[in-house]
DNA sequence: CTGAAAGCGCTTACAG
DNA sequence: CTGAAAGCGCTTACAG
């Protein structure tokens, strides 16, 4: 079987206590014995049993990643991979392992958040893709488990979050359209089960207000972030408000849906209507016309979420961490 | 602290032994005591400590997912999410948790495969995205850890694999082009560090042979599956062999690169040249012209990998599992 | 049908 | 600087 601390102790002629201390870098071991033990451990190809250690220390050096909506109906989460890669990179430094939990909101048996985390004794968790109506939200508001949320504003003793500055980003996107001369600007927003939707609406309103453009309820519509959602909303909006010359979207997928709808209606983009998205997914640079959009630094969001979680686990105070965004100007919006 | 088996024993007035057996469904417990214990466990909101159990049973009910190349230079793994979603679904039934290991081949300290798995005592692992030259390959050939590979043919006492029938798929794609009247058919293949590349080349050759079309070395080129790779290969191939009227590709990304290159060279697709890809990634149905390609059922590949791993863990014999593919005909190839 | 005891591989007061 | 012992929360022969 696998070699244990006991085997090393026998070979070295010391107690397991000493082996444990030597290997864990405690100061109260003579250099001589430490060296001997280390050498033997290496020769025996010893690898500590993290399970056993976890049982006694009550720390597993493992964090959970709880992700909802990995598969939305008809589409995979468009930038989960970037967030995931960032998280892995952020965890690597401190050698935390990652357990992936995918929650399916349509499923019957949803394990409560605390149970989910406690079953594997994760030291903390990152939570992504949750809707505001998800029952986990209420649990997380009162949890004792170190948690970092992505794009959901909850802050308490153990819970922090990271996100872009959505108000500012939407403000910039809308202001850009205004600067191009647009006055009748539609906004196809995400569903109102996402915190970012409200923040983006606020930024949109702010830009109108600052430029003395009256806000009109009929220019704003909530939908589900998907391409089909954008397609349908665009048709309806343009049909009912033909004076609209530009549409801002809360996701690139919706913007691409609008692009298709415009094409099908015989409208040219950007000549007849300007389109701006949000996210800067890979597809947005590949389509024609290239999509003007807000780039979110998803890798960085994941990275910082991981770093922040580690710091909370170590006892630091949770915060809201803002990741910079950027307006990416391509060809889908133009001056009028 | 969390409630343990000991607490339940105390409340129920029985020994921990009995509690353990009652909760684990052993037959040798009276129905009466079992009911009592179950009720108390429920009331106390007991949740077993899987760490402690793992220490004694030497089973963690956890599997690893080892993925290389999660981020290739300049691009994220295009269908990892589908595979992942399939794996999670396949694991759900048997309640296995998933630990995600991303290996970065460029990194210095690559933990040996067995050590990676043993550190967390996973019961088995699924391996995806490995190159043939990866040192893990040799390790896996001799491992005792239940393992299922995706797209890498290794079979032994504990190791099985799942893949599409790449020979047959490439055969079908090439035959389709031949049926359209093409005789000078290029093949932009993946790098020769992937098993699938050899299999697809074999299928390509087979189709030519069957139709009495001589195979020409200069019509075949190996590259790295990426869009840039396709772009450059296409330019070179068409420049040196202007008689080519159709090009088959080992990935959609490369096919899309060729599409771009053709455009830049003033060639129309499919009028001047026919293009066929492999994978059927999401993008392929969205671009113009829609890409004719081979669809791989990635979700299913992931799902079956998980199911097969569970069966190997339970002692069944590893196999090669073939997941059906399908030729998806869109607009990028036409009759001449 | 039930319980006392040993043990999984570690860590950590405590004593020397 | 070192070791004996207790204990983390479970499971599992073994005995009754």
TrEMBL record, chains A, B:
PROSITE patterns per record: HTH_CROC1, HTH_LACI_1, HTH_LACI_2
Keywords tagged on the record: DNA-binding, Transcription, Transcription regulation
Residues in HTH lacI-type domain copies: 3-57
Recorded superkingdom: Bacteria
All copies of domain HTH cro/C1-type, residue ranges: 4-51
InterPro entries: Cro/C1-type_HTH, HTH_LacI, Lambda_DNA-bd_dom_sf, Peripla_BP/Lac1_sug-bd_dom, Peripla_BP_I
Record-linked SUPFAM superfamilies: lambda repressor-like DNA-binding domains (SSF47413), Periplasmic binding protein-like I (SSF53822)
Record Pfam families: LacI, Peripla_BP_1
Protein name: LacI family transcriptional regulator
């Amino acid at each position: 079987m696998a070699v244990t601390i006991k085997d090393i102790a026998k070979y070295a002629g010391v107690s397991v206590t000493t082996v444990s201390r030597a290997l864990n870098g405690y100061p109260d071991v003579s250099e001589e014995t430490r060296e001997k033990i280390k050498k033997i451990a290496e020769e025996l190809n010893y690898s500590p049993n993290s399970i056993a250690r976890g049982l006694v220390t009550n720390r597993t050096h493992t964090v959970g990643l709880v992700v909802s909506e990995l598969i939305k109906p008809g589409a995979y989460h468009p930038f989960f991979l970037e967030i995931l890669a960032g998280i892995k990179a952020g965890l690597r430094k401190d050698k935390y392992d990652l357990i992936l939990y995918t929650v399916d909101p349509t499923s019957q048996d949803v394990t409560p958040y605390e149970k989910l985390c406690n079953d594997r004794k994760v030291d903390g968790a990152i939570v992504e893709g949750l809707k505001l109506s998800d029952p986990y939200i209420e649990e997380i508001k009162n949890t004792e488990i170190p948690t970092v949320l992505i794009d959901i504003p909850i802050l308490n003793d153990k819970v922090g979050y990271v996100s872009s500055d959505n108000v500012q980003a939407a403000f910039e996107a809308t202001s850009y359209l205004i600067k191009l001369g647009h006055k009748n600007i539609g906004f196809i927003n995400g569903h109102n089960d996402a915190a970012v939707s409200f923040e983006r609406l606020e930024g949109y309103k702010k830009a109108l207000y600052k430029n003395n453009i009256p806000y009109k309820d009929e220019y704003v519509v909530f939908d589900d972030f998907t391409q089909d959602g954008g397609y349908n909303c665009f048709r309806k909006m343009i049909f009912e408000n033909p004076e609209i010359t530009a549409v801002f979207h809360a996701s690139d997928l919706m913007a691409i849906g609008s692009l298709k709808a415009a094409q099908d209606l015989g409208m040219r983009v950007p000549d007849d209507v300007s389109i701006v998205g949000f996210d800067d997914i890979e597809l947005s640079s590949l389509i024609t016309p290239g999509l003007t959009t807000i780039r979110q630094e998803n890798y960085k969001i994941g990275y910082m979420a991981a770093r922040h979680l580690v710091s909370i686990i170590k006892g630091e105070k949770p915060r809201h961490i803002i990741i910079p965004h950027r307006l990416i100007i391509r060809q889908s919006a133009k001056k009028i």
